[in-house]
């Protein structure tokens, strides 16, 4: 599974890769199996390709509901750096996914709003 995720995260932005990514998002919502790949998603936030950075951010947000180990607390500022991305399209694509975070952790709303300002 890890290899498949790596391929999807590294894939060029095509219809096929988007469909494969959407399937990963669905899996993230359905069970906690995708949460184990948090280190992979975090690593991908530092990737060279903005599309791939956005995919990693989205998967982090989709799996935050399963974060019983509270990894989020140690990586939140790193994760939110996507909002400073050089590519404005990437930022616009990621902003709606913040809902996933705030649904689970409403206490972070002031921090997220501050970051967005």
Written overview of the protein:
The protein has helices at residues 2-10, 15-30, 38-44, 50-63, 71-80, 88-94, 98-104, 109-116. With 117 residues, it is mostly helical. The longest helix is centred in the first third of the chain and has 16 residues, at 15-30. The model has no long low-confidence stretch (mean pLDDT 92).
Summarize the structure.
With 117 residues, the protein is mainly alpha-helical.
Mean pLDDT: 92
By DSSP (H or I, 4+ residues per run), the number of helices equals 8
Estimated share of beta-strand residues: under 5%
Shape: globular
Query: Oligomer, anyone?
Result: single chain
Poorly predicted regions are none
Order of helices and strands: HHHHHHHH
- Number of separate strands: 0
Distance between the termini: 37 Å
SSE layout and pairing:
Blueprint lengths: L1 H9 L4 H16 L7 H7 L5 H14 L7 H10 L7 H7 L3 H7 L4 H8 L1
Helix pairs in contact: 2-4, 3-4, 4-6
Feature tags:
mainly alpha; 67% helix
